[in-house]
Amino acid sequence: MNRIATCLWYTSGAEDAVNFYATVFPELEVQEITRQPDGTVLVVVFELRGQRYLALNGGPAYSLTPAASIYVPCEDQAEVDRLWSALTVDGTELQCGWLTDAYGLTWQIVPAELPRLLTDPDPVKAERAREAMLPMRKIDIATIRAAVSGA
Fold first, then answer.
1. DSSP letter string over 53-82?
2. How confident is the model at residue 74 (pLDDT cuts 50, 70, 90)?
3. Segments forming the whole domain that contains residue 7
4. Which of 13, 19, 87, 115 is the most exposed place for a label (fewest CB within 10 A)?
5. What is the average per-residue pLDDT within 95-122?
6. Residue 95 has pLDDT above 80, yes or no
7. What is the DSSP letter of 8?
8. Residue 109 host element (H or E)
């Protein structure tokens, strides 16, 4: 492996986490599993939407935090809803499209259209988009569009 990858540090559930992510993202591809001499998993290398990750069973010295998250631009509200529903099972809903899954990994589940609305050249429209988004947990793009249009 000579490509750059993001390492995700799990206390002990790396393989379970990756198996779960594979049910949420059917395109996820496990590329390699490295086992320790006793047979337990040390590292699972996987690729998701062109990005390579290493899920490491690193023990309790460190833990995942929202300081690093996976940003997932979604084509439409249906994709947002599907991913949000799956990833929040036993997880935590955060604000503005952020969530932490049951394994401690934080995700940003965002309609691909959102950045454009938040940076509209008309500062009034951009502010309306921001104000509509701020109280949300799961992003509802129709509500933000309506706010931008003044409806």
1. EEEEE--TT----TTSEEEEEESSHHHHHH
2. very high
3. 1-60
4. 115
5. 97
6. yes
7. E
8. strand 106-111
